[in-house]
Amino acid sequence: MRAVRRAVLLCVPALWTLVSCGIPATGVVEAGGPAHGLVPMLRVYLVENGSLVAVPRRPAGAVDAGSAVMNLLEGPTDTERAKRLTTLLPPLTAAPTSVPTPLASAPPTAGPPGGSTAEAAASAAVSVNARGSVVSIHLRYVTEELSDLAMAQLICTAAQAQRTTDAGTGTKAVTVKVTNALGRSVEGSGERCPEG
Q: How far apart are CA 65 and CA 164, in angstroms?
């Protein structure tokens, strides 16, 4: 019996040391509302020192090829400019007020119902059609030929968003076709785009 009492007396201080390891007891800690799923992220491709750079952004709405392209065409944010990131794409603000008539092969896209005039003008200046592993971008406000790096910005941004959106594409290569206002097209895939 004496041995048992002695063992208990030796264990109590050891147990006390383990229990009181310097972490104070707390009650419920309020840390905001409950989680509501994952916050959607998209990647746009900007230019830094002549190379493509994947930049994560949190969009206002859904992540799809169309919203990713429109997000890219808004240009770098102030924070991104401070990091010396730029774009070689003409901004949507450069779009003419009278948009050229769309090509017969590309159906016109209507702006969102109840959308602002700026949204309607952007929708008239740019259309993005994504189906499976193919994305078509029509830049109705761009009359000049874009540089290879500017095209890569569009192709990588649209391809990445389409892979994220369409689970059926999975690891398949996404083909992106970019057409300007004069009907000149360039096609590419997102296979060689840099990862974040």
A: 9
Structure tokens at 58: 């949190």
Which residues are 179's β-sheet partners?
138, 185
Structural domains counted in the chain: 1
The pTM of this model reads 0.68
Per-residue pLDDT in tens (0 to 9) along the chain, 196 residues: 666 555 555 555 554 454 444 444 444 444 444 445 566 789 999 999 999 999 999 887 878 999 999 999 999 999 999 999 999 999 887 555 443 333 333 343 344 444 555 555 666 899 999 998 999 999 999 999 999 999 999 999 999 999 888 765 555 789 999 999 999 999 999 888 998 6
Provide the 3-class DSSP secondary structure of residue 52.
Answer: strand
Does 35 map to a domain?
Answer: no
Residue 13 falls within a domain, yes or no? no
Domain annotation covers residue 81: yes
Phi-psi region of 183 (alpha: psi -120 to 50; beta: other; left: phi over 0): left
CA distance 63 to 161: 7
Candidates 166, 141, 139; CA nearest to 151 is 139
Look up the domain containing 99 and give its range. Answer: 42-189
- Secondary-structure breakdown of the chain: helix, strand, coil percentages, each rounded to the nearest 5: 30, 20, 50
